[in-house]
Amino acid sequence: MARTARTAEGEPVSVTARPSAPALVPLIGALGYTEGRFAHSAELALPTGGVQLLVNLDGDVLGSSGRRTRGAALQGPHTLPAVIDPAQQRAVVWAAFRPAGAYPFLTAPVSAVRDELVGLDDLWGADGAALRERLLEAMAAGGSEACLRELESALLRRAGRPLEPDPAARRAAALLDGGTPVGDVADRLGWTSRRLARRCTEQLGLTPKRYARVRRFQRLLGRVNAGPRNPDWASLAADCGYHDQAHLIHEFRALAGITPTAYAPRSPHERNHVPLGG
């Protein structure tokens, strides 16, 4: 079912949907179409540990932190914040992959696109090069929901490996996401640490330690955006698994590029987009 978010003036700004094709449900958490006009000239996109497919319908270009591609691209899992241009978000179609969900759509390990924005024409050849035009045609013919259906069809055509994600990799991601120590995750799966590292790097795109750090950071941001305007950072550090407030501040700087007190996202619902200037 699609969900539409609206501005205070009542204008639609985004449509979000779950995949309707059953084969895609285990792989993709959500698809969406987002429109926006922003006063700021640049913003930080913070690391989430996930992979996204992005298509800019407003212009045939995408870029982040100096990397530029054509208007349809795959954003690999970040380990650092990326600087992006809000002008490229005026009309964007996207798909957010579940943990290990991007793996069937690539011919190489997910780590090959870590910290990279890779054009779909490079990844998928002619199919990737044609996707943006197909989505523009679907949008013109039937609006955003028709556009999302066309994106689903394209994803179904492109899947190379079996569409069922590796359950062990998904289990590892869930345990790491919940704060289970890396060594305990390997023990619960009956794996060696080396096997855990290999499987996570291949299918999540990050080492277990790095994935755990990014997901802990995301738990922190979730708490910050759900809480009072002036957070108690010492309490949050204890609740989110940091050694102390100093450790939290160090990790925040490393993963966001700013201090916790400088963090001011576009909105509580867009916690990973932080405006940088007017």
Please tell me about this protein's structure.
The protein is of the alpha+beta class and 278 residues long. The protein has 2 domains: 3-158, no CATH class; 167-262, Orthogonal Bundle (Arc Repressor Mutant, subunit A). It contains 8 helices and 12 strands. The chain has helices at residues 120-124, 126-158, 167-177, 182-189, 193-203, 208-226, 233-240, 245-256; strands spanning 3-6, 12-17, 28-35, 42-45, 52-56, 62-64, 67-69, 72-75, 82-84, 91-97, 117-119, 273-277. The strands form 3 sheets. Strands 1-2-3-10-5-8-11 form a 7-stranded antiparallel sheet. Strands 9-4-12 form a 3-stranded antiparallel sheet, with no helix packed on it. The longest helix has 33 residues, at 126-158. It is globular. The two termini are 36 Å apart.
SSE layout and pairings?
Layout: E1 3-6, E2 12-17, E3 28-35, E4 42-45, E5 52-56, E6 62-64, E7 67-69, E8 72-75, E9 82-84, E10 91-97, E11 117-119, H1 120-124, H2 126-158, H3 167-177, H4 182-189, H5 193-203, H6 208-226, H7 233-240, H8 245-256, E12 273-277
Number of helical regions: 8
Structural class from helices and strands? alpha+beta
Strand order of the largest sheet: 1-2-3-10-5-8-11
Helix/strand order: EEEEEEEEEEEHHHHHHHHE
Keywords:
alpha+beta, 38% helix, 278 residues, 8 helices, single chain, disordered N terminus, seven-stranded antiparallel β-sheet, three-stranded antiparallel β-sheet, Arc Repressor Mutant, subunit A
